[in-house]
Structures are given as C-alpha cells and as structure tokens.
Amino acid sequence: MPNAFDTEITEMAEALVGPWRQPRQMLQAQTYDAHASIHDDATAQKLGFKGGTIEGPTHFSQFAPLGARLWGQAWFESGCLSAHYRAVCYEGEEVQAIVSKPASGARQCAIQMVKRDGTEVLRGTASVGEPSAPTALEARLGELKPLADPVILRDVKLGQTSKRQTVRMAFDQNMGDLYPFSLRQKLAVITENSPYYAGADNPWSRAIIPMEMLSVLFQYRSKDDPLPTKGPAVGLFADQEIRLVKGPLFVDQEYEVEREVVALSGSRRTESAWAKTRVFDKANTLVATMLLNMATMKDSYAPYQDEYRQLYGRAPG
Fold first, then answer.
1. Taking the chain (317 residues) in consecutive chunks of 10 residues, what is each chunk's mean pLDDT?
2. What is the pLDDT of residue 178?
3. What is the spatial distance between Cα 258 and Cα 276, in angstroms, rounded to a whole number?
4. Most distant CA pair in the chain, distance
5. How many CB atoms lie within 10 A of CB 61?
6. CB 289, CB 276: distance < 8 Å
7. How many domains does the structure of the chain reveal?
C-alpha cells in the first residue's frame, strides 16, 4: 500500500513545516443569489481586495500530510482542523503550513499558515478523536460579541435548522453554482495529492474525499434551503472547522446533512451567521461535522445604510 503523501516535511524542534505552495483559485465562476462572489475579480475589487480570493478550505489540504505524519490512520478517521482565517490569499502567492508538535500523548496542537512576507493567513488547532481541550473555534465561540442591530441577518434566529438534504460527490460531478468544478478537476491542481484520493489502494479500499472537498460536499445543496438573509450581499468564510467523527468520507457515497444556526456575531464590517453542519451516513450514524462562520460584508448590501436607519432610527455607528 502506498504512503498517503509524498510531501516533503521539515521537522524542527517545536514544529512540522510543510513546503511552500501556490494554491489554485477555482471559484472565478462561482455564483450565489444570482450574483458573483468574493472569488470573482471584479466583485472582490469593488470591496477593496486586489482580486478574487482563494477559498479558505483550500488551505486545509496543506495540513493533511502534517496531520498524517503526527497521527497516521487516525488522522483520516477522526481528524479535525479548526481555523480562524486572518488574511486573504490570492492566486500566485505562496503559503506554508506549520503544525506545532503536540505534547507527548496529546491529541491536539496549534496550527498556522503564513505567506512569504510573514502575513498570517490562518491560525487554529489540529486534533484527532476527542481532545481534552476546546478546539480553536470552540474557544472562539465562547468569546464572541453578540450581533447587535442586525440588518442583513435580522430574520435569522439562533437554533434555526435546515431540512435534511442528501448529498454525494462523484469524481466527474460538477458541484453546481457554488462550486463550478468536479473532484477530478480539483485533484488535478490540489496542493497535496494522495493515492488515497484516487482509488482503492488505501486502508478502507475506497477512494476518500480530501478534507478541503468536504467543505464543498457539505455546502453543495445549502442554497436549496437558505437562511432568510437580506441580499444580494457578498459573504466570505471567516472561521471554519471540519471534524471527522467516523471517517473518512467516500467518493460516490450518499450522505445526509442538516444545518443549525449556533451563533450570530458581528464586527465593524460584517454580520456573521455561524452554522453547524452535521453529516450522517445511510445508517444515520454521525460521521462528520462542520462549523462555518459565513461573514456577510455590510458594504456589499446596497440598502444597508437606509435600512439600518429605518430599523434603529439612527445612522450606523
């Protein structure tokens, strides 16, 4: 059986360090609510970015070889990446994944991704199984400022749940308006490929879905039962945690997903809905979860100022 990865990993006294990579941007044609997204150059530039941004979970692939080095097969079965996105990345920029070595016997450690100039793209935790300490986003949820004076999210309620949806990812299946490409197309450009992703020559005798593509699978039908947000407006992933509970997840297998709003928060520029996605197999066993903070940019919602004044009787402060 082949090794999971042939990625060159540098071992330092305190950390494992992956190679410099240039992630590919595959969402130029992404649309939602019938308009372009933050990954479209023109849309991104209107909001003050240099161009279309690399989608956050694309970076998760660079951590997979490091997780596999630390924890072996357990990484693919119960691994978790929990990340706060700190800066956007553009196609052509080089980034590097860094994992702090866990203490002896520990199931969790700190992670970081940086650009060549030292800019921190993300920070968080990697873990396997049930670590004794909270993950990065579990800790962050406890520190959030509640959303005050919502405009875009004024009709979204804590505890709101979606209907269960059936999802599947085959190799040549286009994943729709949100993800206008296939798994096979992604594997042609993924930063860290693996024979485990391509066929049955692995411990489970079936091709497995890379962690970055689990985000695609879990979001695949999200617009079939959307949250009642105001729009059109542009959102971006600000925080994301993907946890395998009974993994891995397999190519061309049906799963069911359901979502719950578990937090609402805000900042000067954004309104955020935090959704917990739970993923079940055909036997109704929980196999994975995802926590996602979709932060919607206030400036991208044209009537934001007027509607704020109508709702709250003053200009936004």
1. 94 97 74 46 50 83 98 97 94 95 92 98 97 94 93 97 96 86 93 95 97 95 92 91 98 98 95 98 98 94 96 92
2. 75
3. 8
4. 66
5. 25
6. yes
7. 1
Q: How far is CA 65 from the centre of its chain?
A: 18
CATH code of the domain in which 60 resides: 3.10.129.10
- pLDDT at site 54: 86
Q: Are 108 and 127 in contact (CB under 8 A)?
A: yes
Amino acid identity at 102:
P
From the number of C-beta atoms within 10 Å of its C-beta (0-12, 13-18, 19+), residue 226 rates as exposed
Judged on CB neighbours under 10 Å (0-12, 13-18, 19+), 227 is: middle
Amino acid at 58: T
Rounded to two decimals, the pTM is: 0.92
What are the angstrom distances between the C-alpha of 313 and each of 72, 306, 316? 57, 10, 9
Inside any domain, residue 113: yes
Residue with tokens 């990065």: 136
Joined together, the tokens standing for residue 271 give: 């309104």
Q: Is the dihedral of CA 97, 293, 180, 167 positive or negative?
A: positive
Say if 5 falls within a structural domain. Answer: no
